[in-house]
From TrEMBL, chain A:
Entry-linked SUPFAM superfamilies: Protein kinase-like (PK-like)
Gene3D superfamilies in the record: Transferase(Phosphotransferase) domain 1
Record flagged with keyword Nucleus: no
Name by which UniProt lists this protein: Serine/threonine protein kinase
InterPro entries per the UniProt record, alphabetical: Kinase-like_dom_sf (IPR011009), Prot_kinase_dom (IPR000719)
Domain Protein kinase per the UniProt entry, residue ranges: 28-295
Alphabetical UniProt keywords: Kinase, Serine/threonine-protein kinase, Transferase
One Pfam family linked to the record: Pkinase
Automatic annotation (TrEMBL), chain B:
Domain of life: Bacteria
Protein's UniProt name: Ca-activated chloride channel family protein
Domain annotation VWFA: ranges: 1-87, 135-244
Stored Pfam families: VWA
CDD domains: vWFA
Length: 315, 244
């Protein structure tokens, strides 16, 4: 618990309240709190019957910084980098203080570990491929995400895609990382600096993957490098994923696109193998060996096809 | 835009002062010298309410035009950085606001601008924060009750230097403890850029129940003066004012 003793008190908005902007006069009806962090609190709101996310903070400059980042992303939309910005304004609270806020698109979905545990680990690779591509686009814009962690990610539904929801840590490349969380921080693990470069995000991404297998995290011990290696060896079954994570934490990958290429190549190899193996298998064993959604669909179709033929021929 | 080297004193303590001048009034004088005074108050793990002794923390920081925060020791690392960065940001915003006043005539601060225009001003503040030089004098209360918190303090300071050194601008730190043996404060680490290599600096503890926060702050203020004088004499290539 932190008790900030600045002049301006923290802001608490309860559900049912309405937040009206000082400048643009738009009103947002607060539904519930979505989460709060070091910088501010995010609320789920309704504006003209549409669900939106509203982030409010007592630190006006942080809100302005984040708005700057979201605006920069807007310029490269089409390839949507993060939630789109809807409004930015000031809220005059009943206590008389002015709090800055911004409103962005609300992305609903699941927490990454929950999603993987429910839908199976093969999804991890699929999600990572898409995410690495987005990360590359962000890096190409000259930014580094910074505070990449499980809490800042969401798996959106239809299509299932890993997306980031909080851009508070986004930093221009070459500068000092604005915000970070120890467990995901390269410098905390003594594996490099806290300067914003693409490798910083890739390190954090590897830790996001590890966090799925260690929901409570783990301490760094006397030899952080050794600890990380051990934890990877223990948790990850796939040899190729193990190799990739080790490369990512050791800074041997400099670009997100390398991660995507590595994973894609690996998937192609695996599909090829399964394909070859599958030819020799009896049809009803297919369901057990398929590791790919496509194969799953294929096997279900073939089984139901057989059933249909059985029904039409013998009954 | 010009900003001098930003100067900060970071006071880390767990109780209220009980000897010498009033620390809040000393902090006012220090702030007048262009040095910000930030204060972090550490609570015991079992404390649930803010102890009265720590009320002073807020007062010192507001007189010293700095930032204050009260935390449990586990949150110290993160807090030391938040406080340092926030104080930097506020000082720089002060500089930028002054500039805005000159350009726009009437007294204006960033908050009074419409949100659309704040973005560009913020970029200037961010840029200054990244490139300005920073000097932090860390003043650690090493009275008996602090003993079990000192290893955490040291870790937090090392982490602070890692963060600040990732910036483009130059950062320098020095660490003092108080009370000293015979003087109000005792130097532990002289001005240096990197704290990564420091080991068990708090080994020599001063015992006794006195906490002379006021005199310690006053003495700390003079450490900036001494250093800049020396620097002017010997290192002319490192000017006090930086072009940003």
């Amino acid at each position: 618990m932190n008790t900030q003793t600045l002049k301006k008190p923290d802001i608490h908005i309860s559900k049912g309240q309405t937040v009206t902007g000082k400048w643009h006069k738009k009103s947002y009806h607060v539904v519930k709190e979505l989460g709060s962090g070091a910088i501010g609190t995010v609320y789920l709101c309704v504006y003209q019957n549409v669900q939106v996310a509203l982030k409010v903070s007592k630190q006006s400059h942080s809100i302005t910084s984040e708005v700057n980042v979201l605006k920069a992303f807007k310029k490269v939309q089409g390839h949507s980098l993060g939630p789109s910005l809807i409004d930015t304004d000031d809220y005059i609270a009943p206590n008389g203080y002015v709090y800055s806020f911004y409103v962005m698109e609300y992305i609903s979905g699941d927490d990454l570990p929950d999603f993987i545990n429910r839908n199976g680990q093969e999804w991890l690779i699929t999600l990572l491929i898409g995410f690495a591509k987005d990360l590359q686009a962000l890096h190409d814009q000259g930014y580094v995400f910074g505070d990449l962690k499980t809490d800042n990610l969401i798996v959106s539904r239809r299509p299932a895609k890993l997306k980031w929801v909080d851009v508070g840590g986004t930093t221009l490349q070459g500068r000092a990382i604005k915000e970070y969380t120890e467990f995901y921080d390269r410098a905390y693990w003594q594996m490099g600096t806290r300067k914003a470069d693409p490798g910083y995000d890739l390190f954090a991404l590897a830790m996001v993957v590890l966090r799925i297998f260690y929901p409570d995290g783990f301490s760094k011990g006397n030899n952080p490098r050794k600890t990380l290696n051990q934890k990877i060896q223990l948790a990850i079954r796939s040899e190729s994923l193990k190799k990739l994570l080790i490369k990512m934490i050791n800074g041997e990958m400099n670009e997100a696109i390398e991660v995507k290429d590595y994973l894609l190549e690996d998937v192609m190899k695996q599909t090829h193998h399964t394909h070859v193996r599958q030819k020799r298998l009896v049809p009803d064993k297919q369901t057990e060996t398929s590791y790919h959604p496509f194969l799953e669909v294929f096997s279900i179709l073939s089984v139901s096809g057989l059933c249909y033929m059985y029904v039409t021929l013998f009954l | 835009m010009r900003t001098g080297t930003l100067k900060q004193i970071l006071l880390i303590t767990d109780g209220c002062s009980n000897q010498g001048e009033n620390p809040a009034s000393v902090a006012t004088i220090i702030a007048e010298q262009g040095i910000t005074v930030n204060v972090i108050g550490i609570m015991e793990d079992e404390q649930t309410e803010q102890p009265t002794g720590l009320l002073e923390v807020e007062e010192i920081a507001s007189c010293g035009r700095g930032v204050s925060q009260i935390v449990y020791k586990q949150a110290l690392s993160q807090t030391v950085q938040t406080v340092t960065k926030q104080a930097m940001n506020e000082t720089l915003q002060g500089v930028v606001n002054k500039e805005l006043q000159q350009i726009l005539g009437s007294p204006r601060t960033m908050e009074e601008l419409p949100p659309e225009q704040r973005g560009e001003v913020m970029e200037v503040v961010d840029e200054l924060g990244e490139t300005c030089d920073l000097e932090v004098l860390v003043l650690v209360d090493t009275s008996a009750s602090m003993a079990n918190k000192l290893p955490t303090v040291q870790e937090a300071l090392i982490d602070l230097s890692i963060s600040m050194n990732a910036r483009i601008g130059r950062s320098r730190f020095s660490i003092y403890q108080f009370p000293g043996r015979k003087k109000p404060i005792q130097q532990l680490v002289d001005w240096t850029g990197k704290l990564d290599s420091i080991t068990s600096i708090f080994s020599k503890l001063a015992s006794g129940g006195v906490t002379p926060t006021g005199p310690a702050l006053k003495e700390a203020m003079h450490q900036f003066g001494k250093k800049s004088l020396k620097r002017r004499l010997f290192h002319n290539e490192y000017p006090d004012v930086e072009e940003a």
